[in-house]
Specification:
single chain, 221 residues, alpha/beta, 8-stranded mixed beta sheet, 21% strand, globular
């Protein structure tokens, strides 16, 4: 575990947290929520590392402000949304590609993202050829890009009562992407997988994690 500096194709340098064995045969880019590469996201990275993955968690907010680690109150939500709004999606893609390139040579690479990162993981599947599997948890921007063609298998997770992702959006994604595995968690809201949020649902988070690991194990074998 440790911190490294990545350099994107446009020359931008960003921080990243790393975890897991350096010689792993399976590797992941883990993509943050709108709250930065914070304590929760490092725990997520560590959980995948404990399963034998080499993991890189890039600090995507470094594009606009370095060292951002937010909490989960209303002010943090507003600030996170503002920060995300300053970063163009194509630049974020460059950052995740820099993270992918820094994963162990020869490892099969996947991407897993949450909230904003769920959308970024979708873009990683549809706008690059860097990954062999992609998993998105409650990615609010996926519906707007639902007709994009993924170059690798994709699994998506949504909460039934997510105020920011209506079920109509989920069904639109399902209709546009019949080959994508989609799970909806009854009664769960946005961020149900984050242990520091009021919307956390431990049982659903555990189920979604099992499904994520099974999916990644299959496609990154």
């Amino acid at each position: 575990m440790g911190n490294i500096t990545l350099t994107a194709a446009d020359g931008h340098q960003l921080a990243a947290y790393t975890a897991g064995p350096a010689d792993a045969r399976r590797a992941l880019v883990v993509v943050q929520e709108i709250f930065g590469a914070n304590r929760h996201m490092r725990r997520v990275a560590d959980a995948f590392a404990a399963e034998g993955y080499a993991v890189i968690l890039p600090a995507l907010f470094d594009r606009t402000e370095r060292g951002v680690e937010l909490g989960y109150d209303a002010a943090d939500v507003a600030r996170g949304r503002d920060l995300r709004g300053t970063i163009e999606a194509g630049r974020t893609l460059l950052d995740i590609l820099a993270a992918a390139a820094a994963l162990p040579a020869g490892a099969k690479r996947g991407i897993v993202g949450y909230c904003w990162g769920g959308t970024v993981a979708w873009h990683g599947a549809t706008r690059s050829a860097a990954f062999s599997a992609s998993v998105g948890w409650y990615g609010g921007g996926i519906a707007a890009a639902k007709n994009e063609v993924a170059g690798c298998p994709v699994q998506l997770h949504f909460g039934e009562t997510d105020a920011s992702i209506p079920l109509a959006d989920v069904e639109a994604i399902r209709a546009a992407q019949p080959g994508v595995e989609i799970f909806v968690y009854a009664g769960a809201g946005h961020g149900f997988g984050c242990e520091e949020r009021g919307s956390y649902v431990p049982a659903d988070a555990a189920t979604a994690q099992v499904r994520t690991l099974e999916f990644l194990g299959k496609h990154l074998a």
